[in-house]
Specification:
Protein name: Mechanosensitive ion channel family protein
Keywords: Membrane, Transmembrane, Transmembrane helix
Strand order of the largest sheet: 6-5-4-3-7
Structural class: alpha+beta
Subcellular location: Membrane
Helix content: 40-55%
GO molecular function: mechanosensitive monoatomic ion channel activity
InterPro entries: LSM_dom_sf, MscS_archaea/bacteria_type, MscS_beta-dom_sf, MscS_channel_2nd
Largest sheet: 5 strands, antiparallel
Shape: elongated
Number of domains: 3
Distance between the termini: 57 Å
Order of helices and strands: EEHHHHHHHEEEEHEEHEEH
Length: about 300
């Protein structure tokens, strides 16, 4: 930024990317080379290998166009056209592009569009492959774009029978085997989630279309629940008072109450809402404040030692 008088000029110091990268130039050069080789092939070789050369040229051209389109789609800003519209544009652009490349390759082999669409062999193949995973994910992706259970940028959690989770043996409340994260992309086969650990998780669209989905887009704060058991010989009133004294210093509200009872122990539930913290981070804070309480318990009476002040 340069100030000159009352005017401010913004100067970009980043070099501009060329319109055509060296990868595109390489692909175009290979395609031109294949076309030159095809033109100079003897007639008998052109008869046997001409279609193969033409299909390779189409694939190279389609790959170059696909690279440019994907580069443009990644730069498509959702804040200009809206997250929902941006998701639809990305998905439909990919669908039309790959369909056009497939038809162009078939045309290079001499297969006409009418025979592709109306041919009995095509119908048989489609019916046979409709139940396969790729076409199931493709159709499910179209459903996700049309019905919009979530958009790119939304934080979601989903529960599905395909992804089970081993439950912990320590006593706790019933938990849902949920997976979740922030939606980063919806392509023809997979939906990409960024988990709280920063790992990209690719979930097949066919699984998400039949899963139970929680969309946390409109939820400004994230709820948390943490339950633990204590010895029944402890005084619950003293323990709750000590817990409240310890946890009131946290920057987010924490509510504590008795949750359950067994012949040897009682359960305490801590719950509330926080902004910007993951459940693991909240659990770390709670444990860091709760461990000293258990360490200060008297070995004989099993009641919390109160501070002198």
């Amino acid at each position: 930024m340069i100030r000159y008088g009352q005017e401010v000029f913004t100067v970009s110091l980043q070099p501009k990317r060329p319109a055509i990268t060296w990868k595109i130039i390489t692909v175009i050069a290979i395609g031109i080379g294949l076309q030159v080789v095809l033109n100079h092939l003897p007639p008998d070789l052109q008869k046997h290998y001409g279609d193969l050369f033409r299909a390779a040229i189409v694939l190279l051209a389609g790959g170059a166009i696909s690279y440019l389109v994907e580069h443009w789609l990644k730069r498509l800003e959702a804040n200009r056209i809206g997250a929902r519209r941006a998701t639809s544009v990305r998905f439909m652009a990919r669908l039309v592009l790959y369909l056009a490349i497939a038809l162009a390759v078939l045309a290079a082999f001499g297969v006409g569009l009418s025979s592709v669409v109306f041919g009995s062999a095509f119908v048989t193949v489609i019916l046979g492959l409709a139940g396969q995973n790729f076409f199931a994910n493709l159709i499910a992706g179209i459903g996700l774009v049309i019905f919009h259970p979530f958009d790119v940028g939304d934080r979601i959690s989903f529960v599905t029978w395909q992804y089970t989770m081993m439950m912990a043996s320590y006593p706790h409340e019933a938990t849902k085997p949920a997976y979740g994260g922030i939606v980063r992309d919806i392509n023809l086969a997979y939906t990409t989630l960024e988990t709280d650990e920063g790992i990209s998780m690719l979930v097949p669209n066919g699984i998400l279309i039949q899963a139970s989905i929680e969309n946390h887009h409109d939820q400004q704060q994230r709820p948390y629940r943490f339950r633990f058991d204590m010895d029944l010989r402890l005084n619950p009133d003293h323990l709750l008072d000590r817990i409240n004294d310890r946890l009131h210093t946290l920057p987010y509200p924490v509510h504590a109450r008795l949750a359950d009872l067994s012949p040897t122990s009682f359960s305490i539930l801590l719950y509330g809402e926080t902004r910007g913290l993951t459940p693991d981070a909240v659990k770390h804070d709670l444990l860091r404040h709760l461990i000293p309480i258990t360490q200060e318990l008297d070995a004989t009476t099993k009641t919390p030692k109160l501070d002198s002040h």
